[in-house]
Amino acid sequence: MSETILITGAAGQLGQRVIHHLLETYKVPVANLIAASRDTAKLAALAAKGVQTRKADFDDAASLEAAFKGVDRVLIISTDALAVPGQRLKQHTTAVNAAVKSGVKHIAYTSMPSPDKSLVTFAPDHLGTENAVKASGLPYTIIRNAWYLDNYMHSMPHNLQGGSWYTASGDGKVPNISRDDCALGAAAALASGTADSATYTLTGSQSLSADEIAATIASSVGKPLSAVKVSDEQLLQGLLGAGLPDFVATMLVSADANIRAGNFDQVTDDFTKLTGKQPQTLEDFFVANKAALTA
Ligand SMILES: NC(=O)c1ccc[n+]([C@@H]2O[C@H](COP(=O)([O-])OP(=O)(O)OC[C@H]3O[C@@H](n4cnc5c(N)ncnc54)[C@H](OP(=O)(O)O)[C@@H]3O)[C@@H](O)[C@H]2O)c1
Hints:
Structural class: alpha/beta
Helix content: 40-55%
Bound molecules: NADP nicotinamide-adenine-dinucleotide phosphate
CATH superfamily of the domain at 5-145 and 178-202 and 265-279: NAD(P)-binding Rossmann-like Domain
Largest sheet: 7 strands, parallel
Mean pLDDT: 97
Low-confidence stretches: none
CATH class of the domain at 5-145 and 178-202 and 265-279: Alpha Beta
Strand content: 15-25%
Order of helices and strands: EHEHEHEHEHEHEEHEEHEHHHHH
Radius of gyration: 19 Å
Shape: globular
Strand order of the largest sheet: 3-2-1-4-5-6-9
């Protein structure tokens, strides 16, 4: 394959792993890869490996158009700009328009499961971007990533100290997948060279409730952990009391409400279809991260 592939957000956690898998797992020639960031200094390690680096800022259309010149396939990794409502959708739409103007032949985009049926505060960003990608007229690959297992690494070390995980997800279930598996799935889709349009939802192989996830964490790290069911309002006050910014606390509560409503409860085999592999299990993930969880 001699296509040129550009990854935005390439210095981010997902972007770095997508590039790793393109190079190491799918053996894409380094000369075919371009890594983009707002700050190319953050891409020094990739540049040292021979990956071309370009500056691309989603708040600056001209920078995107310049970055996308000569690119065949672009992966638009959704940004983390959640603080200002509407900003992220505007950024993504700018990126899609820039891809069209610059002659990109295929757009890939990292979305979320069922953004059309979701209580999560940022779901409209993903739905709006998916619609913009489809309206671009270019062939596309939409990769809907389920809630990362890695998200638990923020709160579980603290939760394990007290043995309680306060959650508003009730008995709802969620099919978590690791960030690295999402990167592997995206790399597989990019490396396939497909000319077709498709939407994939990358999930783990099991959808589990908070009780089941807590039990898996407890047995994996050898410490007790119980899921304590609270209301949305109780969780919100707890998160605000812990010092989280309003928009983060509100987003986390909305994610729990979405799980409780059953909207995340969908297991697919899209990861296996793309990669030929099974997603990492919860147990394997938590055992691998035992030191950080119990530090
Ligand atoms: N499914 C899930 O559970 C889950 C969890 C967390 C996040 N996400 C989503 O997945 C994305 C990737 O995850 P991650 O773990 O890699 O997050 P991350 O490490 O925070 O990376 C976010 C990336 O967004 C880029 N970005 C932000 N604003 C930008 C702008 N104005 N122009 C260009 N790039 C911009 C950053 O690139 P530079 O700073 O290099 O410019 C950064 O690389 C996140 O941004 C978020 O949308 C999903």
